[in-house]
What we know:
Blueprint: E1 3-6, E2 19-26, E3 42-50, E4 53-54, E5 57-66, E6 74-86, E7 90-95, E8 107-114, E9 121-122, E10 127-129, H1 133-137, E11 188-193, E12 199-203, E13 211-212, E14 217-221, E15 228-230, E16 295-298, E17 302-308, E18 325-328, E19 334-340, E20 370-376, E21 384-390, E22 394-400, E23 404-410, E24 416-422, E25 428-434, E26 444-447, E27 451-456, E28 464-467, E29 474-477, E30 483-488, E31 498-501, E32 587-591, E33 600-604, E34 612-620, E35 627-630, H2 635-638, E36 639-649, E37 656-662, E38 665-669, E39 676-685, H3 688-692, H4 723-728
Parallel strand pairs: 16-18, 17-19, 20-23, 21-24, 22-25, 26-29, 27-30, 28-31
Antiparallel strand pairs: 1-2, 2-3, 3-4, 3-7, 5-6, 5-8, 8-9, 8-10, 11-12, 13-14, 14-15, 32-33, 34-39, 35-38, 36-39, 37-38
Amino acid sequence: MRAKSREQMRWDRSxxxxxxxxxxxxxxSLGARQAGxxxxxxxxxxxxxxxxALANGPCDFRFRLYTAASGGSQVxxxxxxxxxxxxxxxxxxxxxxxxxxxxxxxxxxxIAVACPSGSYTxxxxxxxxxxxxxxxxxNSVAPGAVxxxxxxxxxxxxxxxxxxxxxxxxIDNTSVQQRVTGTCVGGAAMSAINANGTxxxxxxxGDITGVSAGTGLSGGGSSGDVTLNVAVPLVLSGSAxxxxxxxxxxxxxxxxxxVQGESTAANxxxVQGVAHSGTxxxxxxxxxxxxxxxxxxxxxxxxxxxxxxNGTGVMGTCTNGTGVYGEAGYxxxxxxxxxxxxxxxxxxxxxxxxxxxxxxxxxxxxxxxxGVWGEDTSNSSGGIGVYxxxxxxxGAWGVSYVGIGxxxxxGGDGQIGVYGESFGADGIGVKGFGYSGINAHGIHGExxNGTGVYGxxxxxxxxxxxxxxGSGVGGWSDRAGGSAVWGHATGDNAYGVNGYAGGxxxxxxxxxxxxxxxxxxxxxxxxxxxxxxxxxESTGxxxxxxKGVANTGSNAWGVFGQSTxxxxxxxxxxxxxxxxxxxxxxxxxxxxPLDPAxxxxxxxxxxxxxxxxxxxxxxxxxxxxxxxxxxxxxxQALNRDFRYQLTCIGGFAPVYIxxxxxxxxxxxxxxxxxxxxxxxxxxxxxxxxAKAHPILVEEDKPAEEKGSYLTPIEHGQPAALSVEQAVKxxxxxxx
Length: 735
């Protein structure tokens, strides 16, 4: 089928040629027609006249599809056909603008021609595309023409289906389950759902008439919903030789627990064992051939507790491991804790809360924050927290790899926390080793109301501590005015406290204060000789004489110096500061060049709100009255925001910066040959440190420093309003 549409389209140019085309549009498939859908290509035919004569020969055509008669948007691709045969003005071409080109909206065809080949001439006006019988046929669907293979996935939904258009006869009940409408009467149960929506029912046989609670259970009932509960407390009795309650697990490691008891109440007990009769009866018995007989672990209490009125609180026996092992996860807790209430006034053998006997080994071995902890609270004469006795060896031995080897506390007046006695030649009453870590202590003394460790010697060392890689002597006192370590020596060249550390990282003497001064030293007033309160000296290679470290808080000070009449700090030698240096004022001070023996000369620093660097020099201009100043190779890497100053020497000329700084140089011009020019350049630092730590020119004081002054006296305020007093509670002295 074809629909003709004739239109004269002229093109007038300087050559005077005129084109006339009579167009015939053939819409249809280029292939054989079938009842099904056609392709997207169609045939286009027309008659071409040139200056009133029918065109002949090969011509080039270009076809474009638009949404409007003029302007508009192009639809689909451009169809270009070369060397189309034109005979007596007639030509036929296939066109294809794609499947989306014709979706029901109006379309116009634009034609351009070149006869022979060359520049295209666009014919005007555009030709509107109208419908053809095949296009009308495509507006409907032939019966049976659309099957599942012609539908795109998810293209048909509920909005595309009219209500009531699908009946039960249209549904394949072998693939789609119909709505279930059947029910079962009381006492019957649904046994099957049929394809048509009906159900099959069957009789429900058997009834539960009641639930009874057995041993260790409570609850139950004979009707309705019933509940069984485990009785609390759960009491089981019997005479089974394998144990009334037994738990077995195949899991290894700490998570494999056969029987576990847990108490979340304060002072509660996870597992308790009581034995009433017989000297060999045990409340809790732990036995192991190669591991731990009993393990007690506590995060905030006691791992294992033993209590005995007249026997052994905790006893463990092991053939190849540990008889009793205790572990506590927090400072001040006890892995194993033994208490005895019997009086020890009668002398040895003393009653023991925890006792260990070993004929050729170690009676009691403790490892942890406290290897062995002994406490005496009886207030009776002679009470001892831990007692060690040796006739030719070591009375008490404590070993710790990261904590305290041995610690003793006594609560009675005049009592002894740790007491050691040795009767043999060169024996040691108490000896402590701390092997690893700067906080390991060979002997640790602690006193809430007195002296942590006291040593007194008439002809030797009052307290001596040695550590290969820790603290020789460590002391702790929490009382105001108390002494963590106090030593007194009256002989010449004697030491009240002498500390020596021979290993790498060791400390001869270390002081720690939770709310005071770790180490303090003082000298008497009125002596003509030089006195030093605290002296630090290092004779080793690259050693440090005095070191101060404070890493917590914005007002932490590694080293603090204060003087009422001289210098808070004096350094004889080079000083390096890694970080920022702030001050109230600054200057250099030297022996006066004109009178160095009797006078000083001081100059103030040059200040700026920026991190500014200054560079200057002089240079002579060349024959052209110009000069290039070379700056250091690092200049532009270090600086930014340059400023310039030029001054003529010995004459005047309008000198100026001809070329600003680039490639670490700048050029001066405008002068006369040989004229000397003084120049100055400044720049602001842009290195990584300066970027990370810019100077805050103005800032609010922190809350704890507001109302205080760096220099209160100069502001007419009392010295007590100093920053030091506010943040350190340090007595302030007037400068």
